[in-house]
Amino acid sequence: MKAIKWQVSPDGQNKWLLFLLVVIIQLGTLAYIGWRWHNIGVDGIPYQWQCVPRLEVSSFGTDYIRVVFPEDTTKWLDQSQPEAGQIVYVYISRDAKGVMEIEGASASKPSVGGDYMNATVVSFQNGTVQFRVGFDRYRIAPEKSDGIYDINAGDNVIASVRMKKGEGVIEGIYVNGVPLEASSSGAAMDAARKTAVSGNPGNTPLDKKHIVESGMVPPKEE
After folding, report:
1. How far apart are CA 182 and CA 190, in angstroms?
2. CA 162, CA 135: separation in Å to the nearest integer?
3. What does the DSSP assignment read for 84-121?
4. pTM > 0.85: yes or no
5. Average pLDDT over residues 147-168
6. Closest alpha carbon to 196 in 208, 206, 207
């Protein structure tokens, strides 16, 4: 019996090399994003910024919070006008409580020692620029996300943000000082289970009043 010889054509080798290169680049990109997020979370300057959370579903079916920052306009500090889509730098500082204060935007970074956010111009009119920042998503476990439906229009909703060299990450969303995850029915269910195990059922209401305005978040998909 003759031995069967298996050969790889040059074209086949190139395809495998290209595939391997794409995989390496993708893994490297994910590793860099993870490292950058961790680095900003450790070394970044903490800020508190008022926000409006919206529950959305990505194309992969993973729930996440779309974080809208109402304070998205500021004065333009330069003589030349910005264009829509242009990358600019929003100058920021903190008050005594760590709340973010926006001081203006420019096409140039602030002087040494000044903190800023990288942002994209949405529009410009009469010396005022509207901008959008890149850190507008907050990942959350699907079973802990329904607390967003209990947010009232009068609640104080704050995003805990870390900033470093213009880049930011959202560490948490707090409603009247309470983490969003702690107000979900999933969190209530966990508390009920723990209480049941301890032998003291107590009062653990799991029914929630949906008092959020319909315009704040889209209806949750069944």
Report:
1. 10
2. 10
3. TT-EEEEEEEE-TT-BEEEEEEESSPPPTT-EEEEEEE
4. no
5. 90
6. 206
